[in-house]
Amino acid sequence: MRVLVLGGTADARRLAAELGAQGHDVTTSLAGATSAPLLPPGRVRTGGFGGVAGLVAWLRADAPDAVIDATHPFAARMSAHAADACAETGTPLARLSRPGWADRPDSAGWRWVDDHDAAARVAAGLITAPAAPTKLHGSSADLPARRAALRRGGTGRPDGVLLTVGRQSVGPYRDPLADARVYARMTDAPDAPLPPGWTLLTARGPFALDDEVALLGSHRIGVLVTKDSGGDATAAKLDAAAELGIAVVMVRRPPSPKGAAVLADVAAAAAWLSRIRRPGPPDRRP
Ligand code: NAP
Question: How far is the CA of 150 from the centre of ligand 1 (A)?
Answer without folding.
Answer: 38
